[in-house]
Amino acid sequence: MREQISFESKEKEPKHNIVIVDFLRHGTTEYQENFATHEEKAAMNGNYPRDLTPKGEQEVRATVEKIVKTINPETDIVALWSSPAWRAQGSEEILIELLEEHKIPVHKDSSISSMRNFAQHDKEFMNELWTKLAPTGKSAELMYARDPEFQEKNDKFESQPEVKRRAERVFHYIQSLAEKADLQGKRLRIIGVSHFEFLNPMIEEIFGAKVEKGEGVVKGEEMSVTFDFDPQSKAMKISADFRGEHKDKITFDKNERHFEVSAN
Question: What residue ranges define each of the domains in the chain, with the CATH number in brackets?
């Protein structure tokens, strides 16, 4: 009698681990948080305003609607990360509303302190610094990215290189997720809300954007990075998209913790 071959018994090839990260900058804000006193914040008992202007809400909604169209609730696991700043949490609220409208389950972590804007340890000193730099006519993004005052470590505020290292630690963690998480054939979709300080160094590194030319991330805009890990070959493919431009052949050096883009 002929032996029956069971294809069911064959070991299945492990599926790729795919982690897609959409990081967006919060929408245009009124910066209410910056002017609220400790007493006013305490009285709110955690019920903080969104701290977005009507324009800011529209910016976030337009970006999120595009992201939502790329999500398949059957195959994607959606996780939300956000800076603890009111304007970022308010932007995330819009995210949650749109995801729920499309019946997409959401896994929300607590606010991610690594994705905050730069820490201002001495507000009085910072106010004096901003006042001094204001007459130059430079944007806050340009001043923070290029002015020497922001490049050296200082106990008054968090320098730009320190914030960049924070962002690199986040991407190091995401790559580790792609390598080690048991996604059971599904894709992990991380949508995170952060600030220009966090995003601009990565956009400059991957896409060669020049902050001094006004090419940094604008409010409500997003950058997408895909980590595609083959557990069989241990190969990691990284690609990124920003303003319609696609980059592949990207590597992330886990020791030095920075992105490198090979010429196509």
Answer: 12-116+160-261 (3.40.50.1240)
